[in-house]
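pasting for ref. prot 1 ->
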Amino acid sequence: MKKWTRKQTADVVMGIILQILFFIPWMNCEGKRYTMHGYLVKVLLNNDYVETYDKFFYPNLQEIQKYTRPIATVFLLVILFLIIVQIIESVHLYMSCQGEKFPQIQEVIWIMIMIAAFLLSNLSYNEKTMKTYVSSSSYIYVFLILIIEGIWIFIGRWTELWDEQEAEHEIQIRKKEQEVLELKVEILEARYQGMLKGHKVVHDMKNHLLALKKYDQERDWKGLHKYLDELSDEMLEPDFSIWTGNKILDMILNQKKKEAKEAGILMHIQTEGVTKLPFTDREIVSLFGNLLDNAREACEKIKDEKRWIYIKMIKRNSLLYIAVENSVPRNLVSESGQWISDKKEPELHGYGMQNIRDIVEKYEGDFSCDVDHKHFIASISIYDM
């Protein structure tokens, strides 16, 4: 069974509340309580809506029909309109339970109810008698429906936005998971290619030794060093240069260091006492992926200065401290020291930072960012109990 969204849950709860309100017997006639549906039935049975209105609300006043006819007409129209609203909202409730989307017409309904309340208020007053011919219970009932409908609209829009943000959050997480899978494939392919290179070099080792002996006999030291450098590059497998003890973290750090090197960015990583992290593999990918992507993208905007990223991970007793520091372009830091984002899609940057905060908060840690005219630093502190 598909999990309900917050919007769906809100629609069902508010729909039930509104339906309960529609069935409240708030009118009294001859010692009996009636709902708005009962009032409509009474009108049909009596075949006189003005007389029915007077019996319900002014049973003890004589010759009042000439004063209540206008408001009785409006009141009957309001009751008919509210019954139509109930039918519409019943369909809304049913579609919400089924997980189907309902047309966005609640704002129109709310405005129509507001107009109905306005008509009741303004047409109930008679200038000749200087009296109001609408009961307070009618006002209260209509305004309760108006308030409930308004709250429903507000909660519906808020939960819908919440669901959209969560969906975007999930997309970002899935994207990071996909990056991990692609990274694993890339590493396996690189290792396989390294194995092939090593096999080829071993197979040609006799020829390489003859070439080295020739350089030695001719005392061509420059040529010998060049040949050895080329042979070393060919023999050495492009394997990991960073080892933390966590396979997923190692893959992320080595891949990000490779990307930084290709972009001309110096990346230095310092780890101390980090043998185990409290995060899941997916959280490691999201956390370090977002931190390092943000740092690299900031460095790539620097044109004429040194570009660097410094990563520090320290575990002391139960405290895990992670810091990612990077150089920043001067034109993206204001005089007050605030970071000015120039991303084409700033909302994605926001989701990335939110992912980091969500993970840190899950483990009751602290996440902070600081920036000055030279560098940006994001730091995380978590007590790993």
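and prot 2 ->
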Amino acid sequence: MKRTFTDEERDCVFDLWKQGAGFSDIGRVIDAKPGSIFTILREHGGIKPEKRKRAATHLTIEEREEIRAGLSAKKSIREIARQLNRAPSTISREIGRNRGRRWYRAVNADRRAWRSARRPKLCALAKNSKLRTLVIEKLRSNWSPEQISGWLRVNMPRRHSMQISHETIYKSLYVRSRKTLESSLMKHLRRAHRMRQGKRHSRSGDRGTINIVNGVSIHKRSKEVDSRKTIGHWEGDLVTGSNNTHIATLVDRKSRFTLILKLAGKDSASVNQALIHAFSELPQSMKKSLTWDRGMELARHAEFTQRTNIPVYFCDPQSPWQRGTNENTNSLIRQYYPKKTCLARHSQRELNSVAGELNDRPRKTLKFRTPRENIQRSVALTS
């Protein structure tokens, strides 16, 4: 069965694409196949389409209902127009294009008007052949759309018909429904991609180039977190095994108390579900903040915060030392689960057992107390 996407999901696709996420990364966020993500993006050349709005001058559904009521009451066109403060010609055209006085229906007329408005409008390049010829000439000379737009503003400032924005040129190249400029002209762009990509885009999924939408920087974290004086401030990450298997690890910054979570998948929904469940079983004093890297698995951080009331902070790109406690703990976990281990084979009970062993190890940084002793002492002091 063909997957349909909501407007919110489509907006998310284009926002993440602009931030630099790849097809697979975006697919994991909205639980869709990479091919479906590609199809959505290809149709608009990777450029987020503008949301449709009803023009202020167009008739509304309420006005069309008034027209229908007026026709039923045998009112004249001029009388209806005067009542709506519209021109009689507007009312006459509205009735004429919707089956006349006898068969006029407000809902059907409104739907027809909305469908008609969807027809693609001609852009400046389609309407102005001189401008189009000039743009093609400059593109073939390897000028960028921004250079073309700027050059026209400087050299033809008073010729408004010869002005065009660089975004319009890009859309004419990338958006399939326009077909104003030949796709072969893309090879003259600095980056000859088939779809528009942001400056930070990385098809390889490099986390250093991905920006989490509405993510809060680690630099906005309170000084209390940096001081390690209180429990409840966690660092988290994923540990990867063979066959695309993963587990989530959480470490309390003060006590070094560790949790290891089994995951159904790396997608944001699975990670969110595991984190929300884990934190729901902790006392309130241990739920203050979470610091994560820039992986797309936590793209739904806003939902996590809403469900748990725990703020999430994201590290700088390529800065693992900002989660040093978690990185060190992950290296300890690798003693139990070396690389190329299939992590899906291990149950949550087994993961709890490994976490228990780590929490019962004395640590030099804790003056050779164990994380379990440290967390119990801290919880007792706060209760």
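The two ends are 53 Å apart (CA to CA).
The longest strand covers residues 233-240.
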